[in-house]
Amino acid sequence: MNETEKISKLDEPRLFEEDGIEAQVASLVIPVLKPLGFRLVRVKLLGQNGLTLQIMVERADGSMTVEDCEIVSRTVSPLLDVQNVIERKYHLEISSPGIDRPLVRKSDFFHWQGHIAKIETNITIDGRRKFRGALTNITQDGFVLNTDKAAYGEAISTPISFCDIINAHLVLTDELIRDALKKNKDLSQQFIPENNPNDSIQTLNFEK
Question: I need a surface site. Which of 19, 38, 40, 199 has the fewest CB within 10 A?
């Protein structure tokens, strides 16, 4: 990937954004991530260890190492301290997207076409708002989800527009693990136990 392609990928907007405190954190960290060669995947407040602020980040090519997490932490941690967005004690977690990653940009859907994903929409489609199936026929406007576990009476194929999505992530399968290992050189160098493929996620935790 040349520098022009990297810049283009770093500038690609996300399909949906956070609300409330999570949105405030996102607006703070996005401008400081780009000069370092990173882009935001998502910000999420989790009720674990009391309160955890998870900032999920990746490079333009989708990779993320422990060293990258350290760089991001050293950059955003002082910023969060100064802005004091969260007025209580919390843990800061800088992490990579992992294999069963969130799908937050159109390029994510193109990149993982053919794999199983779970999708949630803000409108009712065929009487439902939650879907699971293989990502197919992807265009700049949307895609077709071919269900892998259709219940009686459910449509096998469902067209979904990008503008109607509020949440999307890959489903961990053997095929996804194999494909991820082929596509990501950093990931292929890591040992992924059969009973816990998500050990490949790079994560750093800090108490604030």
Answer: 19
- pTM exceeding the 0.90 threshold for the entire prediction: no
pLDDT tens per residue, range 134-165: 999 999 999 999 998 777 767 789 999 999 99
* Lowest model confidence (mean pLDDT) among 6-15, 39-48, 76-85, 140-149: 6-15
pLDDT tens-place string over residues 169-184:
999 999 999 998 887 7
Angle at 185 between CA 100 and CA 168, to 5 degrees: 20
Fold topology of 7-95: GMP Synthetase; Chain A, domain 3 (3.30.300)
Q: At 204, phi and psi to the nearest 5?
A: -125, 135
Going from N- to C-terminal start, the domains of the chain cover: 7-95, 106-170
